[in-house]
Amino acid sequence: MKKAKQPNTYNGGCHCGAVRFQVTVDNYKVADCNCSICRKKGFLHLIVPPEQFTLLQGTEALITYTFNTRVAHHMFCRICGIHSFYRPRSHPDAFDVNVHCLDGDVLDQFQILPFDGANWEQNVHLIR
């Protein structure tokens, strides 16, 4: 049996550095969603509770985009346009961090699982 990874804290942010955050990870499974917005953004989803996410700087640099049900709050840096995290429709009280926006070369520490978000209503129950 594979040993479970220990919780680890990562820093991350947008391309220009205006937005910086810290996230504590205890679940190393991330979703690669094929819905219209995630496919275009290249977002790899790591959903964490609010106590595991801290915005370190950049509140004033964030712009929010909403569409459809307006439950999800897609935040991005107004300077460089990078979507480092957002508030997802599936977990509106949590943060969804884009693993691509974590500092360093850490992608290989995560298991990437496909998620059929193009058929979101039928599959939302699979999101943890």
TrEMBL record:
Name the family the entry cites.
Belongs to the Gfa family.
Record's Gene3D superfamilies?
2.170.150.70
Q: Carries keyword Amino-acid biosynthesis? A: no
Cite the CENP-V/GFA domain residue spans from the record: 10-121
Q: Report if keyword Zinc is assigned.
A: yes
PROSITE patterns cross-referenced by the UniProt entry: CENP_V_GFA
Q: Name one Pfam family in it.
A: GFA
Q: Which UniProt keywords apply?
A: Metal-binding, Zinc
PANTHER family associated with the record: CENP-V_GFA DOMAIN-CONTAINING PROTEIN, CENTROMERE PROTEIN V
**Name of the protein:** Gfa-like protein
Output one GO MF annotation.
metal ion binding
Question: Cross-referenced InterPro entries, in alphabetical order?
Answer: CENP-V-like (IPR052355), CENP-V/GFA (IPR006913), Mss4-like_sf (IPR011057)
**Originating organism:** uncultured Synechococcales cyanobacterium
